[in-house]
């Protein structure tokens, strides 16, 4: 045993200056993320130092300004050519600045912006002791039903921490689809997941249900993260690197110099296949694909509805972005292995989501299963492995996020004495009493169902077209069948709203502030514009559909 | 000059729009406005006609491109008008006779409170018909074709408060739809065959295409023509269409609508020339219809229905001629024009009689009217002489040419067709003499109606008699004018082409035979109705008479075969829909719902079950990935 058991770090003196190089960071190109993270930190400081009664306004102001500024930065970068000709790898290989990244970041930022609008809504819940309140718990730390909770409610507290939490989540989501090495990917995953777990627990009403949802989400999320992390380890063992580009080269066989420390594992395809499958599984958990979807209905139902809307839209965008980059940049050489598997996942996801949704009786659970089915449809576009597959997924995600935020925003409006009235029976005859709200919801449902002249149709058409061109005709057939099944429960809600007798003790429709109205209005406008004249946005998505390698 | 073509259509179209949208404030002047615009269109047509006469015979075709209608890569439809000798003939007929009918309607519809609307519809009818004959491609022609169908529906059912009128309008519309299907299929076939449906390219290259294709197109065009021109087997709507006001009947029968089918066949001559089988079917349809209509005309006591049978028969002559190919095209159109004069005159005369007889239509209640309405008697009489082919009058020249041409087709076919045409001429003489005698001669047979109102036969006002006089002049002289020096032949030949047939019998023989048959037919009618008193109630009559009174069982046939058959088909389809289709659909829905209920139980709310599901999923995912590599 004369071999060195001590790492060379302990035995070799390091030349302190010449070996260490300062990382080169392109701050301007990373500005969207930096702005959002910076604003989140400012939000924490606000919580610490600003008087309680001013915090709400300060937080909303900071969040809106930061998200708008970040979106402006994304637009500036895109128009500066960073999405196309000047696309490159920034931050020492950690982050990609390219078309898909910028497109998805823009989508996430808009989802975040309209998410903030719904977070900030304070006219729906009846004022508690003269204080206007939003959807969040008075004091998240107090035990539900306890005296401390009652005192917090009486004092008019609100959980304004929700805003910096949202900003942190958005920050992580911005990094997620542009992450260009596996460690950055994992860090981003945790950065946006942890705030979401917290946000899920913050409901003002039905707090136990909300906390249960948060715990489930956290436990299962941690479980999925463990898989991802293990997969990353296996891939490192296979390639000797966590960099996307290097792994891709090893997969292609263009890099052969073996790290002596990894001589036993490098180039072992079993490690590659298992590792890749496990990372993909972590991402499928985030998008809510069957069989990793089971958290979705419970969490969507338990979380405060504005959080559900934001999460359903933005998480899906970020996770699909990361999945696209992983499959298209790291594993294109492996596509004959992962495509059949993804076929299977897409099929069970489309069918599972659509079929189980039929028997749902709660509108939030219904939308949760709907989101599962939509994950399946998007997966069909991912599987195309063509440029049009990427652009169709980008378009679908943009269209879907606006519909989702708008739909959940409408759900917040329909209320009875116990808060939001989410049981479907209470929505009967809504169209007779509140024709406008019901009509707007009907537009969103039609978009979910993919009826022409809505964005849902354009998106579905694009992904199915890409999938068919990619040779996945059976997948398209099953997708269309699932759409038909899904149309049943969407239309059933419309029938329920417009053709049923209103329940005399049914819910009332609250009149929201301009904030929620903006979110809903933007949802309707985008849904119709993308439905009637999708070409400009399809072209935009098409221009943004090339990954930098 | 060709820029004026669109105005031909625009004038009546404007009239229709103004009159139908203008509301009650136009009630006082609406009829004059409508008549003026129809007349303006005629004047414009006359101007274009004189301009056309000034050009060389082969340089008279002008087109006007208005705009591109449906520009799609390989599918170009333009709104382009074509004015050549053929369409010019129709323009003058439609606007000329149409204007006279407008004028007449001012008097006829005087007491109708919806007169303004009536004139709006008349204008619409003219505009649609003009579009039909001026279109430079089949698709635009189809627009006019459908417009004519719509206008005829509106006008036949103008007195919609009468259930019989509403039913008749619906019947006309439905029967016409069958023909319209033929036209649309023909246009589709043209597009797949020629890649276009513009007249020029289609007709120029017609002889370069397989004959089977052309036969199919020709038969579909014939089906369309049968619908609009009331030819067997789509003739059943024409008799019921008499429910419309009499000027409408005159318009439909003389100037518009029924002539559209003849126009379509003559215009598509190049297609038929290259498809002899289709041509043969056209002649058969024409020959059958000319006898069919004539027999029906013999049995009717309703003056308008007798005339309707006559129209069917005369159009049959035209279709027969058109089916003969280049030896017949010119004569088909010539007969169409002369028929336009005398049939319009006859209908307007019939309307004048009805006007004076409290809208009585049963000829058995007429009799001896010549002294009460002398102008009507004279003009109707001249129309009568023209239609039976009295020597020197219009019908003599035009019908004689068709009979000659039928013989000239040669062979057995020529003998059969010529014989049918000759027989038709005899029957025509019979039924028209019958109408003439029952209406204007013999004893007065009218009686008070249920309310006790005794009819007071009187001559119609000038606004009605003047058009009748003008048309009578046309009935007398048009044929001779056209035939002397073969004027009409030279006029139309550059468009339709012309060939002299090889008749086995000389023209003199045909003329002599026609005249003999004319005398025989008229003589029998005189013996039956002139020498004996006409019973006020129709006798039972022979089997043939009774069958002819029922329009040769056309409606019974349609009812038994088409209506009953359709009902059976519908019932069986409904049965299949209810049991098979609904069964499959509902079964699928139920099974999906059941599956949903079962899958739902997997979602039990326990995080541990969810984790197991994820773990299992991950295991399957990894296993599948490895398996994919292994196979």
UniProtKB/TrEMBL annotation, chain A:
This is NADH-quinone oxidoreductase subunit N. It catalyses: a quinone + NADH + 5 H(+)(in) = a quinol + NAD(+) + 4 H(+)(out). It comes from Streptomyces macrolidinus. It holds the Pfam family Proton_antipo_M. It is found in: Cell membrane; Endomembrane system; Membrane. NDH-1 shuttles electrons from NADH, via FMN and iron-sulfur (Fe-S) centers, to quinones in the respiratory chain. The immediate electron acceptor for the enzyme in this species is believed to be a menaquinone. Couples the redox reaction to proton translocation (for every two electrons transferred, four hydrogen ions are translocated across the cytoplasmic membrane), and thus conserves the redox energy in a proton gradient. PANTHER family: NADH DEHYDROGENASE (PTHR22773). Belongs to the complex I subunit 2 family.
Automatic annotation (TrEMBL), chain B:
InterPro entries: NADHpl_OxRdtase_5_subgr, ND/Mrp_TM, NU5C-like, Proton_antipo_N. Residues 69-119 form the NADH-Ubiquinone oxidoreductase (complex I) chain 5 N-terminal domain. The chain crosses the membrane at residues 31-54, 89-106, 118-135, 181-202, 214-234, 246-266, 278-299, 315-334, 369-394, 414-441, 462-485, 505-527, 610-628. Its main location: membrane. Keywords: Membrane, Transmembrane, Transmembrane helix. Residues 135-417 form the NADH:quinone oxidoreductase/Mrp antiporter transmembrane domain. NCBIfam families: NDH_I_L (TIGR01974), PRK06590.1 (NF005141). It comes from the Bacteria. The keyword Zinc does not apply. It is found in: Endomembrane system; Membrane. It is a multi-pass membrane protein. It comes from Streptomyces macrolidinus. This is NADH-quinone oxidoreductase subunit L.
């Amino acid at each position: 045993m004369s071999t060195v058991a001590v790492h060379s770090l302990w035995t070799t003196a390091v030349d302190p200056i010449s070996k260490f190089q300062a990382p080169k960071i392109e701050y301007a190109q990373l500005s969207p993320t930096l702005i959002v993270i910076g604003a989140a930190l400012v939000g924490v400081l606000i919580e610490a130092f600003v008087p309680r009664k001013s915090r709400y306004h300060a937080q909303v102001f900071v969040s809106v300004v930061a998200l708008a500024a970040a979106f402006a930065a994304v637009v500036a970068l895109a128009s500066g050519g960073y999405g196309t000709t000047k696309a490159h790898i920034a931050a020492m290989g950690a982050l990609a600045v390219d078309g898909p990244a910028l497109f998805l970041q823009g989508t996430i930022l808009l989802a975040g912006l309209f998410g903030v609008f719904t977070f900030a809504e304070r006219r729906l819940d009846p004022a508690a002791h003269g204080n206007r309140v939003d959807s969040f718990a008075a004091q998240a730390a107090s035990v539900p039903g306890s005296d401390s909770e009652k005192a917090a409610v009486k004092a008019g507290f609100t959980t304004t921490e929700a805003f910096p939490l949202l900003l942190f989540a958005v920050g992580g989501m911005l990094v997620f689809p542009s992450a260009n090495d596996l460690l950055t990917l994992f860090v981003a995953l945790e950065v946006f997941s942890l705030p979401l777990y917290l946000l899920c627990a913050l409901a003002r009403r039905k707090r136990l249900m909300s906390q249960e949802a948060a715990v489930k989400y956290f436990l299962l999320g941690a479980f999925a993260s463990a898989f991802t992390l293990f997969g990353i380890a296996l891939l490192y063992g296979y390639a000797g690197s966590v960099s996307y580009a290097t792994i891709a080269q090893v997969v292609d066989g263009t890099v052969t110099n073996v790290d002596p420390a990894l001589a036993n594992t490098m180039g072992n395809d079993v490690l590659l296949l298992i590792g890749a499958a496990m990372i993909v599984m972590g991402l499928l958990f985030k998008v809510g694909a069957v069989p990793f979807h089971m958290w979705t209905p419970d969490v969507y139902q338990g979380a405060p509805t504005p959080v559900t809307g934001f999460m359903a839209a933005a998480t899906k965008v970020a996770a699909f972005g990361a999945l696209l980059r992983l499959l298209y940049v790291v594993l294109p050489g492996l596509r004959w292995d992962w495509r059949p598997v993804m076929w299977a996942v897409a099929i069970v996801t489309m069918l599972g989501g659509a079929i189980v949704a039929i028997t749902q009786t709660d509108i939030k659970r219904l939308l949760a299963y709907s989101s599962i089915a939509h994950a399946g449809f998007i997966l069909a576009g991912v599987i195309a492995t063509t440029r049009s597959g990427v652009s169709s997924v980008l378009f679908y995600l943009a269209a879907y996020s606006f519909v989702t935020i708008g739909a959940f925003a409408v759900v917040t409006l329909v209320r009875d004495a116990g808060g939001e009235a989410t049981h479907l029976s209470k929505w009967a005859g809504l169209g007779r009493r509140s024709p406008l709200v019901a009509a707007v919801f009907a537009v969103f449902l039609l978009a979910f169902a993919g009826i022409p002249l809505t964005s849902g149709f354009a998106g579905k058409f694009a992904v199915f077209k890409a999938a068919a061109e990619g040779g996945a005709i059976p997948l398209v057939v099953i997708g269309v069948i699932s759409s038909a099944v899904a149309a049943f429960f969407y239309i059933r809600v419309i029938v329920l709203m417009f053709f049923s007798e209103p329940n005399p003790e049914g819910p009332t429709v609250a009149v929201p502030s301009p904030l929620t109205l903006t979110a809903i209005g933007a949802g309707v406008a985008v849904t119709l514009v993308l439905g009637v004249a999708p070409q400009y946005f399809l072209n935009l998505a098409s221009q943004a559909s090339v990954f930098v390698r | 000059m060709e820029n004026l073509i669109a105005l031909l259509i625009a004038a009546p179209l404007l009239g229709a729009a103004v009159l139908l949208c203008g509301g009650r404030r136009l009630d006082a002047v609406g009829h004059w406005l409508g008549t003026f615009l129809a007349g303006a269109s005629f004047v414009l047509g006359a101007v274009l006609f004189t301009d056309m006469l000034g050009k060389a015979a082969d340089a008279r075709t002008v087109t006007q491109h208005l705009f591109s209608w449906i520009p799609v890569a390989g599918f170009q439809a333009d709104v382009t008008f074509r004015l050549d000798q053929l369409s010019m003939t129709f323009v003058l007929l439609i606007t000329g006779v149409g204007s006279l009918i407008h004028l007449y309607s001012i008097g006829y519809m005087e007491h109708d409170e919806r007169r303004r609307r009536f004139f709006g519809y008349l204008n619409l009818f003219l505009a649609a018909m003009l579009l039909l004959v001026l279109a430079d491609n089949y698709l635009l022609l189809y627009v006019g074709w459908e417009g004519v169908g719509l206008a005829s529906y509106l006008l036949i059912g103008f007195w919609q408060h009468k259930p019989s009128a509403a039913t008749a309008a619906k019947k006309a519309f439905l029967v016409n739809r069958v023909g319209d299907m033929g036209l649309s299929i023909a246009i589709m076939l043209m597009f797949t065959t020629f890649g276009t449906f513009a007249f020029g390219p289609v007709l120029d290259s017609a002889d370069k295409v397989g004959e089977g294709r052309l036969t199919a197109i020709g038969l579909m065009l014939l089906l369309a023509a049968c619908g609009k021109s009331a030819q067997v087997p789509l003739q059943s709507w024409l008799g019921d269409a008499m429910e419309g006001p009499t000027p409408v009947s005159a318009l439909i029968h003389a100037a518009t609508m029924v002539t559209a089918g003849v126009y379509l066949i003559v215009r598509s001559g190049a297609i038929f020339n290259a498809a002899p089988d289709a041509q043969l079917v056209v002649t058969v349809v024409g020959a059958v219809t000319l006898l069919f209509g004539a027999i029906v005309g013999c049995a009717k006591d309703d003056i308008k229905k007798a005339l309707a049978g006559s129209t069917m028969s005369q159009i049959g002559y035209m279709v027969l001629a058109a089916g003969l190919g280049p030896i017949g095209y010119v004569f088909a159109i010539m007969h169409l024009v002369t028929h336009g004069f005398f049939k319009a005159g006859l209908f307007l005369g019939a309307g004048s009689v009805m006007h004076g007889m409290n809208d009585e239509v049963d000829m058995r209640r007429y009799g001896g009217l010549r002294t009460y309405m002398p102008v009507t008697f004279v003009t109707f009489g001249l129309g009568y002489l023209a239609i039976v082919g009295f020597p020197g009058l219009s019908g003599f020249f035009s019908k004689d040419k068709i009979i000659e041409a039928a013989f000239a087709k040669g062979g057995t076919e020529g003998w059969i067709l010529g014989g049918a045409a000759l027989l038709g001429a005899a029957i025509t003489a019979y039924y028209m003499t019958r109408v003439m005698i029952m209406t204007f001669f013999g004893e007065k047979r009218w009686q008070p109606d249920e309310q006790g109102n005794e009819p007071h036969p009187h001559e119609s006002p000038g606004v009605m008699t003047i058009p009748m006089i003008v048309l009578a002049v046309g009935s007398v002289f048009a044929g001779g004018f056209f035939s002397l020096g073969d004027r009409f032949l030279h006029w139309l030949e550059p468009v339709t082409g012309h060939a002299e047939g090889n008749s086995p019998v000389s023209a003199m023989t045909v003329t002599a035979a026609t005249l003999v048959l004319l005398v025989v037919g008229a003589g029998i009618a005189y013996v039956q109705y002139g020498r004996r008193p006409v019973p006020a109630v129709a006798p039972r009559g022979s089997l043939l008479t009774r069958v002819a009174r029922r329009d040769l069982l056309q409606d019974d046939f349609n009812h038994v075969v088409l209506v009953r058959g359709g009902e059976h088909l519908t019932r069986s389809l409904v049965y299949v829909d209810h049991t098979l289709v609904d069964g499959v659909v509902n079964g699928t829905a139920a099974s999906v719902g059941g599956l949903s209920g079962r899958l739902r139980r997997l979602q039990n709310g326990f995080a541990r079950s969810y984790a197991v599901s994820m773990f299992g999923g991950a295991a399957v995912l990894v296993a599948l990935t490895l398996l994919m590599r292994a196979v």
